[in-house]
Amino acid sequence: MWKLWHLLFGWDYVIWSNSAADGIARVHAGFGQGPWYWRYRCTHCADRIRSAEQVIWLTCEPSKYLPE
User: Which residue, among 68, 58, 53, 48, has the nearest Cα to 12 in the 3D structure?
Assistant: First the structure.
């Protein structure tokens, strides 16, 4: 589904994982705070992306959101 949304709307996606779970999430521009994604949207748990190695980038290069 994320491939279709990227094609239709241009949204970018990453794969995240931690010790308890993993998933695919849409990247949001942070407007001064840096890029972020919903880790658990139902509980409103969001994570900021601080480095390119923190997640696996599916639809774009990290340089699109993170300064080099």
Answer: 58
Confirm whether pTM is higher than 0.70: yes
3-state SS assignment for residue 25: strand
Q: What whole-number distance in Å separates Cα of residue 25 and Cα of residue 55?
A: 10
Q: How many CB atoms lie within 10 A of CB 40?
A: 13
Each residue's pLDDT tens digit, 11-64: 999 999 988 889 999 999 877 788 999 888 778 888 899 999 999 999 999 999
Residues 10, 25: Cα–Cα separation, whole Å: 14
Cα distances (Å, whole numbers) of residue 28 to 17, 51, 55, 56:
17, 15, 14, 15
For residue 28, give the DSSP letter: B
Report how far residue 51's alpha carbon sits from residue 65's, in angstroms, rounded to the nearest whole number. Answer: 10
